[in-house]
Amino acid sequence: MTGLVKQSAYKRVLLKLSGEALMGNQKNRSIDPVVLGAIAAEIADVVQLGVSLGIVVGGGNIFRGVEANTEGMDRTSADYMGMLATVINSLALQGAFEKAGVETRVQTAIAMREIAEPFIQRKAMRHLEKGRVVIFAAGTGNPYFTTDTAAVLRAMEIRADVIMKATKVDGVYDKDPVKFPDAVMFEKISYNEVLAKNLKVMDATAISLCRDNQLPILVFNLQQAGNIVRGISGKQIGTLVGD
Ligand code: GTP
After folding, report:
1. In what side-by-side order are the strands of the sheet with 52-57?
2. Which pTM does this prediction carry?
3. Which of 116, 128, 225, 239 is deepest in the core (most CB within 10 A)?
4. 36, 136 in Cβ contact below 8 A?
5. d(CA 14, CA 158)
6. Does ligand 1 lie within 6 Å of residue 113's CB atom?
7. The CATH number of 2-242 is which of 3.90.550.10, 3.20.20.80, 3.30.365.10, 3.40.1160.10?
8. Burial, 20: exposed, middle or buried (Cβ in 10 Å; 0-12, 13-18, 19+)?
9. What is the pLDDT of residues 140-150, one digit of tens each?
């Protein structure tokens, strides 16, 4: 085990997955079991490396609070619905991880004791020390905060070395790579540049929280199989956002 730990660049990682990542190509299903299985297999490899792992998953495959708000729904209610969606995704991931032999705990920021244990930072630390993956559900428990901000908050609370932000593209580009084929990807970029150029890595609250607490962000492509382990092992993938 000790030898394996040396192969990883990071010892403790917070992985941020989007809810949409769980849909795969089946746009008529919010959660694709094949995608869950593929993510779980990668997570099992990460745990084998001796890396301790926290996860935050979004809820956009089920419900998007911000969009519902623009369509006339009360923002607070819409955000709570989005937070509940993250609980569904967290339970789906937990099931898949445990099927792959990875001991996993779900902690929720909104109390629902029948479903999951409450978020308790010290308990989360103990789970991580015991080699369990901890999935943090229900965002920060507050409206007006994104799941990216929740991920940064949890990353700091568990003292993660890095936050790995999974996306559908290879990293951070100077313009939208889907619309502009000549878009150029950065290998490294500063927090301030991301904020000044509004590069949409994460929302501004999340980015500035990372900047103020010196938490590096590794933006990478989840659709490339093996990328989670590659990133954690320190191989050059994606874009590193730092100072
Ligand atoms: P330790 O024994 O302290 O190492 O951790 P543990 O998580 O194995 O023990 P614990 O007795 O706290 O939890 C046993 C199981 O019950 C785990 O799957 C927990 O996630 C779950 N659990 C713990 N507290 C709660 C809770 O308040 N509500 C729900 N629904 N499950 C809980």
Report:
1. 117-118, 104-108, 133-137, 52-57, 12-17, 162-167, 217-221, 239-242, 188-190
2. 0.95
3. 239
4. no
5. 8
6. yes
7. 3.40.1160.10
8. middle
9. 999 999 999 99
pLDDT bin (cut points 50, 70, 90) of residue 7 is low
Could you count the other beta carbons within 10 Å of the beta carbon of residue 59? 27
Contact at 8 Å (CB) between 154 and 14?
Answer: yes
Distance from Cα 111 to the centre of ligand 1, integer Å:
14
Q: Check: CB of residue 215 under 8 Å from CB of residue 162.
A: yes
Strands 117-118, 133-137: pairing is: unpaired
- Confidence check: pLDDT of 226 > 70: yes
Dist CA 243 CA 229 (whole Å): 24
Closest CA to 135 of 34, 32, 216, 22: 22
